[in-house]
Design a protein that fits this description.
The complex is a heterodimer of chains A (110) and B (113).
Chain A lengths: L4 E3 L2 E5 L4 E6 L7 E6 L6 E6 L5 E4 L2 E5 L5 E6 L8 E9 L3 E4 L3 E6 L1
Parallel strand pairs in A: 2-11
Antiparallel strand pairs in A: 1-3, 3-8, 4-5, 4-9, 6-7, 7-8, 9-10, 9-11
Chain B lengths: L4 E3 L2 E4 L5 E6 L6 E7 L6 E7 L2 E5 L6 E5 L4 E6 L8 E8 L8 E2 L3 E5 L1
Parallel strand pairs in B: 2-11
Antiparallel strand pairs in B: 1-3, 3-8, 4-5, 4-9, 5-6, 7-8, 9-10, 9-11
Classes of the chains: A mainly beta (110), B mainly beta (113).
């Protein structure tokens, strides 16, 4: 059983469209992170959210942490081909352990 | 460029063999975490080392072990390799055990035949 469930697992859309990726859990996390991973590379941190209800923006990307700190969403506006990649959410449990979702593979078609 | 390097980039082993994977952390980062990422999955936490001692472990058997050295390098050792050990192994360094922020290397792709 996956502790963090991401949906959808695969998403293919046209350039210019908007999209939302979800990360859900029944567990509470002290913080939640979003990463992007490209083929042959390690995950790269995009954002960390800590406070329930927190919203952070990174250019065309908007991240939200649920009020109960159990879920999060990533919204991309006007998607571009450069946004293509594997998006991973990860929740922190305790001081050391980072629990990852299974990822959302996003493809933006020109 | 995260400043975290892993070697080798690819490795092929057979069942029952032993393997050592290496990671060079970012200078000044005294904490390293190792993850296993199976194909099509997210990374799974193996363990964390802080100041050369294991500081937390995920659900991996004892045949997965590690070492951390004072020069910011570390190793992941896996004994008695099994087919299911085929995966991308990632190390991530951070300045302290809280893991913030965590910088990942590009991983070692291990294939077990």
């Amino acid at each position: 059983t996956q502790l963090l469930e991401q949906s959808p697992q695969f998403l293919s859309i046209q350039e210019g469209e908007n999209l939302t990726v979800y990360c859900n859990s029944s567990s509470v996390f002290s913080s939640l992170q979003w990463y992007r991973q490209e083929p042959g590379e390690g995950p790269v941190l995009l954002v960390t959210v800590v406070t329930g209800g927190e919203v952070k923006k990174l250019k065309r990307l908007t991240f939200q942490f649920g009020d109960a700190r159990k879920d999060s969403s990533l919204h991309i506006t006007a998607a571009q081909p450069g946004d293509t990649g594997l998006y991973l959410c990860a929740g922190r449990q305790g001081a050391q352990k980072l629990v990852f979702g299974q990822g959302t593979r996003l493809t933006i078609n020109p | 460029e995260t400043g975290v390097t892993q070697s080798p980039t690819h490795l092929i082993k057979t069942r029952g063999q032993q393997v050592t994977l290496r990671c060079s952390s970012q200078s000044g980062h005294n904490t390293v975490s190792w993850y296993q990422q199976a194909l099509g999955q997210g990374p799974q936490f193996i363990f964390q080392y802080y100041r050369e001692e294991e500081n937390g472990r995920g659900n991996f058997p004892p045949r997965f072990s590690g070492l951390q050295f004072p020069n910011y390098s570390s190793e992941l050792n896996v004994n008695a390799l099994e087919l299911d050990d085929s995966a991308l192994y990632l190390c991530a360094s951070s300045p302290d055990p809280s893991g913030q922020p965590q910088h990942f290397g590009d991983g070692t792709r291990l294939s077990i035949l």
